Amino acid sequence: MNILVTGANGQLGNEMRVLSETHPKHTYFFTDIAELDITDKAAVSAFVADNAIDLIVNCAAYTNVDKAEEDEATAMKINADAVAILGGQGVKVIHVSTDYVFSGDEHVPCKESDPVAPRTAYGRTKYEGEKRLLAACPEAVILRTAWLYSEYGNNFVKTMIRLGHEKEKLGVVFDQIGTPTYAADLAAAIFTVIETPCWHPGIYHFTNEGVCSWFDFTIAIHELAGIQNCKVSPILSEEYQYKTPRPHYSVLDKSKFKKTFGVEIPYWMDGLKRCVGKLKIEN
Ligand SMILES: NC(=O)c1ccc[n+]([C@@H]2O[C@H](COP(=O)([O-])OP(=O)(O)OC[C@H]3O[C@@H](n4cnc5c(N)ncnc54)[C@H](OP(=O)(O)O)[C@@H]3O)[C@@H](O)[C@H]2O)c1
């Protein structure tokens, strides 16, 4: 297959690039905004035709949750209008969405069939992207994920390692619960979808296994990174001046993905160990 991976310079895109080396039977086209702006319909159609693309894996997105509140129009252009463009190319699409389509007020893990109620501009634009993709391309696969980190790009893990070296004490919220997800494990899940002989369209939830708070996550990051001189304390969300409301409980039920594709998913701490291990080798 000829596979186009968009947003290839982001966290997930880079992990797709790394993992593609273990799937050499396909030909890959890794692009980011400089090579292919997914909001440019003519450019997308030309790229798909010129390179006989069979499958698009969309890793491109407007991911800055706070900035999206101030500029929802731009977020909508990238997270919804462009996703509809990708869906209109007459090829299969694997797209990535977010736990932010839910309100975050739940107390049990969300299933794919649960009602959505996005509370943020980012969540609204991502939900709009899901709807418009499925309308344009009913064969699409959408993977909703959460709390993504990787050795590439900026993310919570890298920020907490930096702050752990810079500061003697740090307050981190303990009243927001979710599942940290290693982008390499999400990339592996995308390859599972690609390699499964029978195509199973629809929406799926994919994160690592287990749950924790941002506070617990930070403690684990510091332990694995060998940071000992920074005291991490639990604080309430109201003590941290968030620009945008954050979900209190944002856990996704992954049963459908595991059952459909017959896979086990790594525990979040296992993913974190692998990522911090790679970051240690790099530094
Ligand atoms: N990060 C999370 O915690 C999280 C949580 C839940 C779901 N997700 C979803 O997971 C997916 C992957 O996220 P990620 O963290 O890997 O994102 P990321 O690191 O922000 O990467 C997104 C990439 O898309 C590029 N891009 C932006 N606009 C584009 C355009 N018009 N055309 C082509 N490329 C464009 C970005 O370039 P610039 O950097 O230059 O803008 C960036 O390289 C996204 O769909 C995201 O919504 C992420």
Task: Please characterize this protein's 3D structure.
This protein is α/β, with parallel strands linked by helices. It has a domain at 2-146 and 182-208 and 252-266: NAD(P)-binding Rossmann-like Domain (Rossmann fold, 3-Layer(aba) Sandwich), CATH 3.40.50.720. Helices cover 41% and strands 17% of the residues. The strands form 4 sheets. It has a 6-stranded parallel β-sheet with strand order 2-1-3-4-5-10, with helices on both faces. It has a two-stranded parallel sheet with strand order 6-9. Helix 1 crosses helix 7, helix 4 (72-87) packs parallel to helix 5 and helix 6 packs across helix 8 (214-225). The longest helix has 16 residues, at 72-87. The radius of gyration is 19 Å and the shape is globular. It starts with a strand and ends with a helix. NADP nicotinamide-adenine-dinucleotide phosphate binds next to helix 1, helix 4 and strand 4.
Short description:
With 283 residues, the chain is an alpha/beta fold. It has ten helices and twelve strands. It has helices spanning 11-20, 41-50, 65-70, 72-87, 121-136, 156-166, 183-195, 214-225, 255-261, 268-282, and strands at residues 2-6, 27-30, 55-58, 92-98, 141-145, 148-149, 169-173, 177-178, 181-182, 202-205, 212-213, 231-235.
